[in-house]
Structures are given as C-alpha cells and as structure tokens.
C-alpha cells in the first residue's frame, strides 16, 4: 500500500508521462482555513447536513459539480455581449443554434436550470397513473415525475447496484426488465423511457451506445418515446470513446450527436457539462410537444426566448457547450476525477468502481458496517470528512432516497454512498491529494463513528434541508 504522504503524479498513476490541464489559472479565489473547533461548531449549527454549511466555512467544496464550474475567459467575454431584451434576445438565437448543431434536436426551450426543464417535461409528457421506466432514479427528476402523477420504475442492470462490480457501462438499461414493464403496464401507459447518461446515483456510471441503440429499437417496436437526461452526456461520451469498440477514433462531439440522434427529446442542467453557473434547457423534435412546452415555460420560467435566464447567461452557456466537447478538455476533466479515485483505491479505501465521470463515490456501508442504514452512514461520512479537513461532500443514500410516497416509510437503496464531486476547472491536483489524505484519515478512525438520527425533515427532497444529531 502506498504511503499517504508520498507525492504522486498522473504519470505515476497511469504508467506514462505526466500531463497537465489544458488551461492556466488567470484569477484566484482565496479559501478559508478553519480549525477543528470552528468546524465542530459550524457542523452542529448546520444539523450535520453539509448542505446547510456556509460556504465561508468550507475549505475544499466537493458538495456538487452543479453550477460550481470555473468559466473561461471567452465565456466571461461573452457575458459582456449579453442582450438583455425581454423578448428575442440575440443570445437565445446563438444558444439555440449551438444546441441544434451539437445535440441535434429541432426545437429548444431555455430554462433557469435543469429542475425547471424536468418540471416542464413532466407536466407535458406524463398523464396521472402512467409509468416512467428509467436507468435508476435521480432525486429531482423522480419527484417531478411523481408530482405529475407518474410512477418511476428502475430498469437499470443489476451491476449498477453493486459498488464493486467492474462493469464498464453500469448505467445500461436491462432490456428484459424494460420489456417486462412494458408488457405488464401496456405501452400506452408508458409516458416515456427516461434515459440518463451518465447515471449519477449509481456513481456517475455511463451507458453504452450499443445499449442506447437496443433501447431505441425496443421503444420503436412498442411505440414508446425515449427521452434523455443530457446533463452529463459529454462525460458519458468520453467513456464510450474510451471503452466501446468502434469509437476510439470518433470525436466527443460526434459521439454526443450520435447518441442524441437515437432519442426523441432531452433535458439538461447546463450547470454541469456546459461549464456555467446557471442555466438549463429542453430540446425536442416533436412540434406539438414543443408548442406545449413553449406555452408552459412562459407560465413557470419566463418568455420562451429567455426561460428565466439573463441574455449574458445564455451567451456563456452557448460558449460553454462548445468548450465542453473539446477532447483535450474532457480528457483532463475525467483524468482529475480518476486521479482521486485511484489514490483511494491504492489505499484500499472502498469506492464505487469503476470511477465515474463527475465524482468519486465512497461506499459508506463498507466504511461503517456497524452503523445501521436508518442511522444514515453516508450522511455521517460526509460530516466526518468536514470535521477532519473542512471538505464538503454530500450523501447519496437513504436520505436522498427519501420516503415511499404511499407508505411514508424510508426507502432503503442498495447503494449507500458519499459523493466527492469535483467541480470543473476549479481545483488542482494538490487539492485532490488533500482530499484523499482526509478520506484515509477518516477511514482509519471508522470504528469509533456513531450514527445519526433525524431531528427535522422537510416534506420534499429532504437531503437538502434535513437536520440530524448524533445517536
């Protein structure tokens, strides 16, 4: 086992000469260094929920990669070209053209972020009582589907629920499961198949192009629509390029376009792949669906040519989409996540394997086998990492799974994970070393940890605002 204080390079990690990120730092943001006593007080005040910590009390913030990106000089320059006209902003037409070119859909509706897009597509495409099969749930997506009267059914392959299974495409749909759902519910009662690339809750795991083609063919046989969550599709394209036969010589942009061409519509939180701090969109090929979406966006988001965004934000998004599909960029982005994951794996720290696209997911069950799942081991692990070094991670386990809408009981997912989410173009390799050493320190003290209990629980998406105390 490697000594945790031995300096490493990506070259040592991957058996080749080192390489560096394809960008240089132009502006820096000072970080706050806190003491253990200060962190203990901050965590108590936050109710052991890292979402309720003040950012000023955080040293390395790995809570999420959503809206935490560093924008390029070209994006910042583009923001100075913001056309803040209420209607018909030139920035919307630039964004529309970029989405049509890069993702291939005919009609585009901007939204303030991905959650707004999920709301609109759920309101328009789901009738009460319908079923939405998908490759594992995502918290906000499933809630919008349920609020529209739908019911999500997981049809992901079994390997996705095993953090140690080495399957290269753990985001794949199990075709037999999907066929069984269609047979039992009837094709007319399937609102659409919800396909995510990559699958966040499974550890950032990708779906293969071959699987998407098979799902498309199955949907065509039954007359079912296939809708795509394209939030981290660029990262998914990288894994296809790297792992799937026939794609090594295809560009990331070509792979993204091929995958989108297999689907009927997509929604996106641009706060991830597209390298911006706010924004999202819906894109569809069906003109009738587009008319419904264009009508509803005015009610909930803003006029159809701004969708809750300033013109400058749409301009930054259009530029960010183009930058996100540069092969050198995405190679460095995945490389940094991998670097952290391989450090931890070398020290025999239990993580989801293979390492995903946007984060390293710690297996909290393996950290704390003595802590029952209803004492929230993944939430506990996030709290302990903050106490150790001021690192903010987030829970992806029973807290995120929430309660069964029918029974009110906890939903017990097979995966109990703590997510170390790496923002894009923000931290250096040295920051990843600090994170890895903190994880090892917490792992070495794991036997002394005790569980948590909920003392406040909101009605929806409890992981954002719930409060805990130690058992």
Structure, explained:
With 471 residues, the chain is of the alpha/beta class. It has two domains: 10-61 and 327-470, Aspartate Aminotransferase, domain 1; 73-324, Type I PLP-dependent aspartate aminotransferase-like (Major domain) (Aspartate Aminotransferase, domain 2), CATH 3.40.640. It is built from 17 helices and 14 strands. The strands form five sheets. The chain has a five-stranded mixed beta sheet, with helices on both faces. The chain has a three-stranded antiparallel beta sheet with strand order 9-12-11. Helix 8 (209-222) links the parallel strand 5 (193-196) and strand 6 (226-229). Helix 3 packs antiparallel against helix 12 (311-324), helix 13 packs parallel to helix 17 and helix 15 (377-389) packs across helix 17. It starts with 9 loop residues before the first helix and ends with a strand. The relative contact order is 0.17. Mean pLDDT is 95; it is low at 1-7.
């Amino acid at each position: 086992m490697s000594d945790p204080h031995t300096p490493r390079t990506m070259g040592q990690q991957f058996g080749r000469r080192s390489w560096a990120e394809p960008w240089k730092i132009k502006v820096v943001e000072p970080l706050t260094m806190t003491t253990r006593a200060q962190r203990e007080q901050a965590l108590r005040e936050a109710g052991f929920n890292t979402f309720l910590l003040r950012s000023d009390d955080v040293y390395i913030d790995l809570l999420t990669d959503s809206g935490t990106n560093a924008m390029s000089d070209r994006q910042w320059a583009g923001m100075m070209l913001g056309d803040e006209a209420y209607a018909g902003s030139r920035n919307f037409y630039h964004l529309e053209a970029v989405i049509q070119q890069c993702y291939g859909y005919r009609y585009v509706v901007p939204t303030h972020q991905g959650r707004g897009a999920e709301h609109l597509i759920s309101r328009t495409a789901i009738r009460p009582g319908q079923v939405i099969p998908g490759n594992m749930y995502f918290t906000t997506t499933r809630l919008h589907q349920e609020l529209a009267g739908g019911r999500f059914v997981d049809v992901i392959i079994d390997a996705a629920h095993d953090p140690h299974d080495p399957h290269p495409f753990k985001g794949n749909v199990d075709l037999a499961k999907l066929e069984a759902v269609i047979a039992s519910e009837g094709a007319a009662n399937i609102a659409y198949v919800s396909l995510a690339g990559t699958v966040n809750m499974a550890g950032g795991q990708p779906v293969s192009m071959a699987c998407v083609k098979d799902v498309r063919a199955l949907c065509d046989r039954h007359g079912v629509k296939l809708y795509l969550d394209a939030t981290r599709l660029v990262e998914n394209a990288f894994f296809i390029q790297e792992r799937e036969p026939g794609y090594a010589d295809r560009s990331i942009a070509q792979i993204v376009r091929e995958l989108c061409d297999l689907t009927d519509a997509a929604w996106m939180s641009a706060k991830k792949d597209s390298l911006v701090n706010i924004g999202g969109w819906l894109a569809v090929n069906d003109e009738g669906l587009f008319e419904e979406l264009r009508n509803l966006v005015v009610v909930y988001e803003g006029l159809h040519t701004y969708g809750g965004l300033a013109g400058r934000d749409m301009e930054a998004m259009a530029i960010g989409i183009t930058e996100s599909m540069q092969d050198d960029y995405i190679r460095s982005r995945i490389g940094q996540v991998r670097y952290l994951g391989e450090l931890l794996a070398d020290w025999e720290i239990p993580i989801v394997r293979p390492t995903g696209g946007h984060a390293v997911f710690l297996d909290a069950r393996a950290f704390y086998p003595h802590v029952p799942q209803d004492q929230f081991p993944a939430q506990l692990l996030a709290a302990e990492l903050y106490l150790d070094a001021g690192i903010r991670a987030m829970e992806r386990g029973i807290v995120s799974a929430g309660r069964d809408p029918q029974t009110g009981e906890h939903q017990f997912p097979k995966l109990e994970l703590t997510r170390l989410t790496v923002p894009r173009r923000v931290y250096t390799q040295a920051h990843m070393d600090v994170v890895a050493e903190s994880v090892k320190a917490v792992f070495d003290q794991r036997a002394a940890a005790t569980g948590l209990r909920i003392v406040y629980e909101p009605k929806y998406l409890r992981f954002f605002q719930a409060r805990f105390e130690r058992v």
